[in-house]
## 1
Amino acid sequence: MQSGMQLEVVDGSAPNKFSVGAEQGYAVMATMKRVIEPEIEMNSNLSERIKMVYYRIPPGRAVLLLPGFLLLALLTALGFGLWLAALNAIYRDVRYVVPFLVQFWMFASPVAYSSSMVPGRWRWVYGLNPMAGVIEGFRWALTRQGLAPGSLFAASGCGVILVLLGGVFYFRRMEGTVADLV
């Protein structure tokens, strides 16, 4: 194959010299994905800021807590990611269960509803969902509606710590087993 713009596709039969090459095509798609995804994310953030300006929602001091809420969300994702990575390496069917877990988790978190709908005596159990306090914290910091997620946030913080430490310990424990299985 010559260098330059001539690319080939090998589909099991004779190569086609006038279309994008298989290896190069995937490289081009991966490169475009790296370029387009941050652009979409930036535009999404920009549209949220425009909406806040349009609806005249000034940011309050609570916005300063957003990095903390974001850190808890990232630590939760890391913890569950470690659990699922180790489980997926041992049990290959775990990847088929993950979409169902994500959908269930979305309904178990206050994404489409407020946590104030949960009765007070069950709120601490609800707060064990690591994302419940984080989502309510984001909602409170951005819209300044409702009360600060004090006890819910504390329970979610404990949930985040449990998930993260459990994920780290389980991943480290399974590391040698996974190397033997793979």
Note: The CA atoms of residues 86 and 174 lie 6 Å apart.
## 2
Amino acid sequence: MRKLMNPSETIAGSARHAGPHLGLVAVVFTALKFASLVPVSAFGFAVGIKPPYFPEPAAAANDIVAYFDTHRLPVLICAFLQFGATVPLGIFTATIVSRLHFLGAKAAGVHIAHETLAEMGSRTWHRARNHW
């Protein structure tokens, strides 16, 4: 039996899972997620974003409402980019679930991860449609 020197090598006749490069998908997700923070946080200081920044959850309700009333465009840009980041996250999750099935994994965690992502996506879509 031949030992593989490189994990990307395959033995002739063996099956190989087809799918996107997970590193690239993860980089796209990370870039979109961090880009979503720029318009509403101190990460945007370099491009001219000034305080007040996105309010913390423990802030007074009046402060939170005032922020969202006066910073509508930055919040919409943030929400758009975060929603856009769910696409590569979905691709990443679906690819991982598919690879685990391909490799014969039977653990319940495979299905839980897939269902959790689907639920998060549908809730985000529902909130975006009903509140903006």
Note: The two ends are 61 Å apart (CA to CA).
## 3
Amino acid sequence: MERFNVIDLAKFLFAIVVISIHAHPFQNYPMLNNAYGVFTRLAVPFFFVSSAFFLFRKYQFGKGGYQFNKPFMLKFLKRTFVLYLVATIVYLFISPYPLTLDGLRRFSLDFTVRGVYSHLWFLPALMFSVFVMTVMLNYVSLRVVFAISATFFAVGTLLCTYAHLFDGVPFIHQIIRLLNSTIGFQNGLFYGLVFVALGALLTQTSVIPLRRSLLLVVLFLGLLVVEGAVATIAVKSDARYLFFSLLPLSWALFSLLLQVKMRDRRIFGYLRKYSTNTYIFHYLFIVLISRLLVIPKRGMVIFVLATLVSVLFAVAVGYLAEKRRLGFLKYLY
């Protein structure tokens, strides 16, 4: 079985990047914080692409359509939902909803689409994207699915990152307000679907040569920097997590990493497990540590401590999950 050790390593490193997004290690240095913040936008797309890549490698695509591994698909959705359910329960303890009709309405919407805590939207978005792709592939080709999802991504980026461009356009401005008050833009439709489609597409297309991949990564990274500057300075965007350049950059980076080989080590298998657990539960430790520490300029301190605790927690869960009586802990990664 072909192994992708570099992808596993990169996914773990991006999990650490996600911790930094929420811990704000450079919060006391505005220029550095803004510049670093643009680069961190690549982390969540990478999680979507890598998850889809490993999942859709189980599919068999051909001229007559596609065949997928139904048991594997159901297992994936089941494990993801259980992880999401457990994470939801955990985060409800630190951010409960009011026991009112409005609270129930907010919880229902958040649980279905946005996640009950800021970063948990990734899991319902991932399940939505995988399910929608599975349905769509029964009727259209993978390339058509990618084109449709890219259209939604483009629309979402325009209405989210570049929303201020439509301040004087009543109808579009009303649509933006409606979306922001309901499903938002960090969801499967506008965000996750295109990167899941990209991950599936990468299982079927030949990768570009190594040097060309590296050049494209540098080029698209430069475009991301430019786009980030435009969104921040010129557009004065309120939300800067959707960028047009993220899509080609994710493609080029993943294509590059697919060609980098590293000698097999057991640690890489563990890193894939640790990355998901670290991504999901790190915010819990950020909150707990933030409430315990009462010191100024604590962003970097919280980042370092939250990273250490999150990784140790992931290692502990991975170790205990190997025990016969604690096998259910495997649902936590």
Note: The two ends are 21 Å apart (CA to CA).
## 4
Amino acid sequence: MKYKLTKNTKEVFGSTLYQIEALESFADIQKGDLGGWLEKESNLSQEGDAWVYGDAMVYGNARVYGDAWVCGNARVYGDAWVCGNARVYGNAWVYDNAWVYGNAEVYDNAMVYGNARVYDNAWVYGNARVYGNARVYGNARVYGNAWVYGDAEVYGKLKIEAGHFFGMRYNQEEIKYKKNEGQELIYKGEAKFGDSEDEEVEQAIKLLEAKGRLKDGKILSLTA
């Protein structure tokens, strides 16, 4: 075993977290060093150089393993995974079913959650949000006030500082819009829309007028 749970505790959202203490020296950790806070031993692997530092917290069913680090005031919880050589630090949060792995970094006030994945050499930082089924990978950077969500993928060397990015277009698909009570629904591909109630009423009025059954807004007869 490379660490143990100490008797130092704190309560977080109804969960008791325990500060960890190194039982051996590895990486930049010395035997006897106090680390961050876990709810249970399964939150941090006893193998590899993975570690939780400072006031960082890992709880729920979250897992940190490989050579990953969680530092500062960062939080990893829910069913999230941080692994490989990933780094989560500052005030960053990774939670739900999100994964951060490879050489990825999530820091500052950034949040990664939902089923999002951040991996390879990607960085997410500032006040950025990555969530839903979004993917950020390669050498991409998502930072500032940018939000990446839905089924969006940010990769390669793309850098995004602001804006909301929520989907993908493949093979130069045409992006279309459907007006709906003052708003517009964004869609692509073939779509079919049923008549609205107003349209159905208008069609009925036109039919009655055509048959001479409607005058001054009143129905004259319903018989042929």
Note: The domain at 3-165 is CATH 2.160.10 (UDP N-Acetylglucosamine Acyltransferase; domain 1).
